[in-house]
Specification:
Helix 1 crosses helix 7 and helix 3 runs parallel beside helix 5. The protein starts with 6 loop residues before the first strand and ends in a 7-residue tail after the last strand. The protein has 10 helices and 18 strands. 32% of the residues lie in helices and 18% in strands. The radius of gyration is 20 Å and the shape is globular. The C terminus is likely disordered. A 7-stranded parallel β-sheet has the order 3-2-1-4-6-10-15, with helices on both faces. A 3-stranded antiparallel β-sheet has the order 8-7-9, with no helix packed on it. The protein has a two-stranded antiparallel ribbon with strand order 5-18. By secondary structure, the chain is an alpha/beta fold. Strand 1, helix 1 and strand 2 form a beta-alpha-beta unit.
């Protein structure tokens, strides 16, 4: 097994996904060094869930001295640190590029200086795909046309065939699908992939890119536009407010539990074959409205019913969900958490305290949704 006993560095280790990665590694007896910035806009205080079996370092992955100290003796790296979400407006672009691309570049430069040639696992995202795949009965596989405000205003949310105008059937997205980032966050995630790929080729390192789909579970931050739809709905219901479902609620996504995502990181670290790029998802698409209703039902009869608003965001995509065949065949990874049980757990799990939402992070190592 690759790197079975070596020290693993996890960046963004105090955040939502990173902290679960640390827990999973520690539970398997792995030595873990955990780096996180604990940015005050992401954490109101040091979280109480930090795993005491890890060696914790609090600092910025963009700082060369900090990262080089963290890399001493390290045989593998799980790079989770990234600023997540779609952002509030294009004015967020500088922060996204600095934290995501600048942080990744600084980490890779430090890996290069220290002669790292081990396994690197990058947390990427399904947002690099943009819209998902679509099939027209008459024209075969086609790309969905850009969303038009006039159609969305009229409640016409499904993309038409760009050739004949007929309805399209959404299909699972495979890793070979050409990327088409539709927002700043997506563009930075794709750039992270490119930077890591260049490093791996030049250094001879082994790179696994994990494209997370819609991750949910304990430790998500509450009440922030960066946290993802599951967290926003959970925050609304907890406050006694009806979750507001955009469009008609029929948008298809793949909701994957954070413990499954952590297990995928372990599988990518330990894969015997040189890994590649993988969708990390449950393999079962569900509508946004189904997710909202399942969450409300798990909270109980007092939970307000989700409201379908018909509102839209032009930068959203209609359907995107994963083919998980490659991760199953090459990594031996298959999601194991039940959606219903996972949502029931999520309904009761505490969320992280509200933070100043201008720079919310998945985890705060490089700045530390998904």
């Amino acid at each position: 097994m690759a790197h079975a006993d070596g020290l693993v560095l996890v960046t963004g280790a105090a955040g939502f996904i990173g902290s679960h990665v640390v827990d999973t590694l520690a539970a398997r007896g792995r030595a873990v060094r955990a780096l996180d910035l604990l940015h005050d806009r992401a954490h109101s205080s040091e979280p109480d869930y930090l795993n005491p079996e890890a060696e914790w370092v609090f600092g910025d992955v963009r700082d060369a001295d900090t990262v080089e100290r963290c890399l001493h003796g390290v045989e593998a790296v799980c790079h989770q640190a990234a600023m997540v979400g779609l952002g509030l407006d294009f004015g967020d672009v500088t922060a996204y590029v600095s934290h995501n691309d600048g942080g990744t570049a600084a980490l890779l430069a430090a890996l290069d200086r220290t002669g790292f040639g081990g396994r690197l696992v990058l947390a990427s995202s399904m947002v690099v795909y943009g819209e998902g795949r679509y099939l027209c009965q008459g024209d075969g596989e086609v790309a969905a046309p850009p969303r038009e405000a006039s159609r969305l205003e009229a409640g016409e949310f499904e993309p038409p065939c760009p050739r004949c105008g007929a309805p399209l059937e959404p299909r699972p997205v495979g890793e070979q699908t050409p990327p088409d980032p539709r927002n700043v966050y997506a563009a930075t995630k794709l750039h992270q992939e490119h930077l890591c790929s260049v490093f791996a080729r030049e250094r001879g390192a082994s790179l696994a890119i994990l494209r997370y789909h819609n991750v949910y579970g304990p430790r998500m931050p509450r009440d922030t536009p960066y946290a993802g739809v599951a967290s926003l709905f959970r925050s609304s219901v907890a406050a006694g407010l009806a979750p507001l479902v955009f469009e008609d609620g029929a948008q298809l996504r793949d909701f994957v539990h954070v413990r499954d995502v952590a297990a995928a990181n372990l599988a990518a670290l330990d894969a015997d074959r040189p890994p590649g790029t993988y969708n990390i998802a449950s393999g079962t698409p569900r509508s946004v409205l189904e997710m909202a209703r399942t969450l409300a039902a798990a909270i109980g009869p007092a939970a307000p019913e989700p409201q379908v608003t018909g509102r839209y965001r032009l930068g959203d995509v209609r359907h995107v969900f994963a083919s998980t065949d490659r991760a199953r065949l090459e990594l031996g990874f298959q999601a194991g958490e039940s959606f219903e049980a996972g949502m029931a757990e999520f309904a009761c799990a505490p969320l992280r305290d509200p933070v100043d939402a201008r720079v919310t992070q998945r985890s705060a190592g490089a700045s530390s949704r998904p």
